[in-house]
Amino acid sequence: MRLARRPISLKVYSITLSLLALMVVVTGLSTRNLQNLNNEVAALSRYYIPLDQQVGSVETLVRQQIVHVERIMLLLQARGRDAAAVEDEKRLFDQRGVNADQVIDSSVRLIDEALASTEVRVDRVALSLLRQELPDIQSARQHFHGTFRQFLAEIEEGNARSLKLVREALAGEKEGINRQLEKIILVLEKTTQEAADRAQAEELKAIRLNWGITLIAGVLGLLLAAVITRNLVEPVRRLLGGTRAVEQGDLSIQIHADSADEIAALTESFNHMVTGLREKERIRDTFGKYVDPRIVAGLLENQLAFSGGEKKTMSVFFSDLVGFTQMCESLTPDGVVKFLNQYFTLMSEPIREHRGILDKFIGDAIMAYWGPPFTAEKEHATLACFAALDQMARMERFRAMLPDIMGLRKGLPRVDVRMGITTGDVTVGNIGSESSRGFTVIGDTVNLASRLEGANKEYGTGILISEDTWEMAREAIEAREVDRIRVVGKSEPVRVFELLGRKGELDAATLELKGRFEEGLAHYRNGELDPAEACFKACLGIKQDDGPSKVFLARLQHFRDHPEARRADGVWDLTKK
Fold first, then answer.
1. 504: left (phi over 0), alpha (psi -120 to 50) or beta
2. Residues 6 or more apart from 318 whose CB is under 8 A from it?
3. DSSP readout, 445-463?
4. Coil vs helix vs strand at 107
5. What does residue 363 show for φ and ψ, rounded to 5 degrees?
6. How far out from the chain centre does Cα 304 lie?
7. Phi, psi of 497 (to 5 degrees)
8. What DSSP designation does 230 have?
9. How far is CA 167 from the centre of its chain?
10. What pTM was estimated for this model as a whole?
11. Predicted confidence (pLDDT) per residue in 203-226, tens digit
12. Among candidates 548, 549, 547, 552, which has minimal Cα distance to 566?
């Protein structure tokens, strides 16, 4: 149950009644000091802090108007002008102006109320100065508003001035507004600090007076002094300490209000302010986890504002865990979330380290892409391959974490991942509804990357890349051609390669395996089944579990049993996604 507000003066009056015979003079002095403290606290809570918040709101709204001006400028400079976006920015620009004027009017009314108040003594000189300055800021802002609106009207009439001249004019007016705002903010800060200093001075007076009461009243005086210290001094000290902590960036501070007076009200206001700041910081941190900072910067700078989409050559990556659905059956919901979070954390790091854009998580799958303007035009395929190799290398580290993640020491599942990378034309842009959009890539290249990830199941491989990816990255990677396939949903066949490692980093056995397999693949395509079989068997002698070699040996036996199944073009049709 919330306690009713009780003025500090009532508490002091209750205490002085019990000591009236001994402390008539002391009571008067104490009451005066506490009234002064109450006055300063009331001035802070009723006028100074609200005024500071309102002036801060005006500054924010003016800066938002400036942001809308910049956006409108950029939209007007764009080759394909988005009229709807321009109108929307105009509307927001006007709304911010209306809001700023409303806040200024509210601030003026609050100052008038403070100057007319007979209950709370305020710094009339400072408030009178603010009363004069606020309308000037309003006039300056309205002039800035009108200047920009006149410029827009000129554009609509076909008599546009130079954007450079307009920018310079608006910049001058903006600087003027900023100077006036800074002047007001400095006056408010000085006034607030002086009020806090006076409150602290009154606090020190109260402490000295308490010591006098202690000498006169003995034990009873000590008890009363302790009560006063607990109820008045300590909350103010905690409040000042909390203010300093917030000033140093500590937003975890939370001050407990022991009383139900004006100091408690001020403490609640302080806690509410800190909670708001903490929530804003949390939103900023969370937003950074969901959207790549480069995309945010590009959108704000109008570098990524592809309203209708743009075709670009990029490299697209898909990965998927093997047997994850069955694995989930042995995990609790919390275990599944912990498993995926740790997996995504490890797998996301190589993507970001190699300048990739992490597009989305789809269940246990990861989609990412590389390309302009985030990477150079000729290096995105290489970066995608390097990221995939680094992810595959980190799988051993992830497997070592499984006992702690799953809470098991025996019977741990084998965790493997399949990856597919393609390079080609994609459509890139802001895709979605009017209210919710995402910067992403779509097209056949994206679909093919997903299909190649799934094709790993057919060949027992870990990373499959397309021919275009291999051509662009061949100077930096080692890969072997696996097959010429036709995936589901695509009529044209594609050559696919297994990514083996970075250039010059393969061991002798893997190099020998690569050479014998390519020799066997050449015999296979020439219809020389026996030499091809010998090569693939030799591959199994080098690597007993080589998936592609097993696939081709089974295929050769199938062709012997069913000669009509052989195709002249050597293309193998995949029937599963």
1. left
2. 365, 366, 367, 419, 420, 421, 449, 450, 452, 453
3. HHHHHHHHHHHHHHHT-SE
4. helix
5. 65, -115
6. 18
7. -130, 145
8. I
9. 31
10. 0.52
11. 787 777 767 777 776 666 667 666
12. 552
